Amino acid sequence: MLSVTEIEKSFGGVRALSGASLDCAAGEIVGLIGPNGAGKSTFVNVVTGFLRPDAGRVSLGGRDIAGIGPQQVSHAGIARTFQNLRVFRDLSVRQNIEVAHLRCRQLRPDRAARVNVAALLTEFGLEDLAEQPAGSLPYGTQRWMEIARALATAPEILMLDEPAAGLNDDESARLGRAIASIRDRTGCGILVIDHDLRFINSICGRLFVMDQGRLIASGAPAEVWADPRVIEVYVGPGSPDQHHAPH
């Protein structure tokens, strides 16, 4: 469904992405990991149309969508959440979700027909909070609402940027179960970007590892964590603290 091939992106004289590639099929959960500064955010912003690549191809269902802009990428079938929450704080929880669904109904009524806003509110435990201003919700609850809002567009590919950030272990476990349920219910492909490696390992069938703008490894988690290049990145100097080491 989603195929990203040999993406290049530079800012001034600094190369942020160099030949970065990734693929995600329908019904698959894949993870994108790497240390801070690896290029993950730039990669996601290229895929979702916020940045235009200097070279390479982003294809969804065989259609080249590189550089067409975030709204057009959303219409094509890719939805995302953000590392830093972006919610309409003064709108209610229900309105946040309905805005996304309304836009989808206008542009892709075939896809929008698959979505029931009331069912999304129930699925994410938001029904009792539906009329509350989104900005009044606790941080973790806003995370749930942002995912529900992304699903209101009936995406073919769902990209979750740091969804476990700020969540405790119980909340992360619940999030993992929810992501698996979304995959099973909708059949969409899901790409998860997160620093919590135990969380990533628990939900992803394949991992892609980036370092300094390059893809250094990909495959099943067991294969990736046996790769000497990945071990060097995560165990060598400058590695993340052991709280995030995979088990």
UniProtKB/TrEMBL annotation:
SUPFAM superfamilies: P-loop containing nucleoside triphosphate hydrolases. Residues 2-237 form the ABC transporter domain. One of its GO terms (molecular function) is ATP hydrolysis activity. Coiled coil: none annotated. InterPro entries: AAA+_ATPase, ABC_AA/LPS_Transport, ABC_transporter-like_ATP-bd, BCA_ABC_TP_C, P-loop_NTPase. Keywords: ATP-binding, Nucleotide-binding, Transport. CDD domains: ABC_Mj1267_LivG_branched (cd03219). This is ABC transporter ATP-binding protein. The lineage of its organism: Bacteria, Pseudomonadati, Pseudomonadota, Alphaproteobacteria, Rhodobacterales.
